[in-house]
Amino acid sequence: MVPILNYVCATSLKSSSNAIQPLFLAMPVNIGGLGLPPHQVGIILGIYGIANSICQTVLLGRLVNKFGVKAIFVAAAFSFMPMFMFSPLMNLLVAKKGFSCLVWMMLGCQVLCLVVTDLAYSASLFSIFNDFGCH
After folding, report:
1. What's residue 65's pLDDT?
2. Per mean pLDDT, which range of 13-22, 60-69, 107-116 is the poorest?
3. Is residue 32 in a domain?
4. What sign for the dihedral angle of Cα 118, 124, 126, 129?
5. How sure is the predictor about 133, in pLDDT bands with cuts at 50, 70 and 90?
6. What average pLDDT does range 68-84 have in this prediction?
7. Residue 10 falls within a domain, yes or no?
8. 3-state secondary structure of 50
9. Rounded to an integer, what distance in angstroms lies between the CA atom of residue 78 and that of residue 90?
10. Residues of the domain holding 11
11. Is position 15 within any domain?
């Protein structure tokens, strides 16, 4: 039951971040976004998709074998916090000083956190399948 509840929590948080992220990137700065043009939003989300695919395909199995499912899930769950905290911080920086290297680095860290949060899905599924005897 616990792995299923973990999966539900991760899904809820991930769904909200998937809905908010493109809006945050495209909304004007004065209403809380970054005001990026659509092509830059597409590039950022494309980079996220490619990084996520590579991480899930190449790294996930190795990480689970090395650290275990629980450690991967906990790391993924904790990465939701900085991922959500970066948005208002970036907006404040852009509103006060415009785009700078610091904002782009924070955006890169936020995308990295998004990739790490996706590991929660797979870690939950590893746990669920193991509970049902699937290997």
Report:
1. 85
2. 60-69
3. no
4. negative
5. low
6. 89
7. yes
8. helix
9. 20
10. 2-25+38-131
11. yes
Beta strands in the chain (DSSP E): none
Which DSSP string corresponds to 53-89? Answer: HHIIIIIHHHHHHHH-HHHHHHHHHHTHHHHHHHHHH
119-129 pLDDT per residue, tens? 877 777 766 66
For the chain, how many structural domains are there in total? 1
Residue 33 falls inside a structural domain: no
Amino acid at site 19: A
Q: d(Cα 72, Cα 50) in Å, to the nearest integer? A: 20
35: left (phi over 0), alpha (psi -120 to 50) or beta: left
Count of helix runs (H) and strand runs (E) in the chain: 6, 0
Three-class SS state of 117: helix
**pLDDT, average across residues 86-90:** 95
